[in-house]
């Protein structure tokens, strides 16, 4: 079954290029395109796609506002794209409910993989922005710092899973690193979130840094 995608970007050539790349994949189908945030919201309401590939800077309604509406109204996953490598955009996009964030200079194969990862229910951030995002969110103190002792309630495997989450690995990459199945990884991730009282994978990444499990450079 194909991953149904809406592509939204105010630049026609960019929008068309992304659509062509994605539509060429056997497991992805672009069901609509949009030139601004308002059109993107309308397209999602009409087609109910699995994923919305959404530019941040657009006329009428920007990508952040569009992402907020889409995430509040539907189950469609949102993957943000931008040329602006800035922390505030990443923070605002994730706060609006986006599951992923990539820069527009992403390689073709990485774009396709990002769509598959986010559509599959995982979070994804461009490696170039992950570290600054963590530093920014820790600085803002969106949640109280977690004491390192909190990690004592995790098993050795769960602790390893948290560390790998903090390094930005997907479930498939964690499974390969730990030499276990993806189902086992999903169980470990769920246990980590539950035991530490975390809402999502982004908070898990922050906790990995706040507890010193991963050292910030």
UniProtKB/TrEMBL annotation:
InterPro entries to which the protein is assigned, alphabetical: CheY-like_superfamily, NreC/VraR/RcsB-like_REC, Sig_transdc_resp-reg_C-effctor, Sig_transdc_resp-reg_receiver, Tscrpt_reg_LuxR_C, WalR-like
SUPFAM superfamilies, A to Z: C-terminal effector domain of the bipartite response regulators, CheY-like
GO MF term set: DNA binding
Keywords: DNA-binding, Phosphoprotein, Transcription, Transcription regulation
Top-level taxon: Bacteria
Residue intervals of the Response regulatory domain: 4-119
Gene3D superfamilies: 3.40.50.2300
Family annotation (PROSITE patterns): HTH_LUXR_1 (PS00622), HTH_LUXR_2 (PS50043), RESPONSE_REGULATORY (PS50110)
Domain HTH luxR-type intervals: 147-212
Biological processes annotated in GO: phosphorelay signal transduction system; regulation of DNA-templated transcription
Modified positions (4-aspartylphosphate) in chain numbering: 55
Annotated SMART domains: HTH_LUXR, REC
Protein name: Response regulator receiver protein
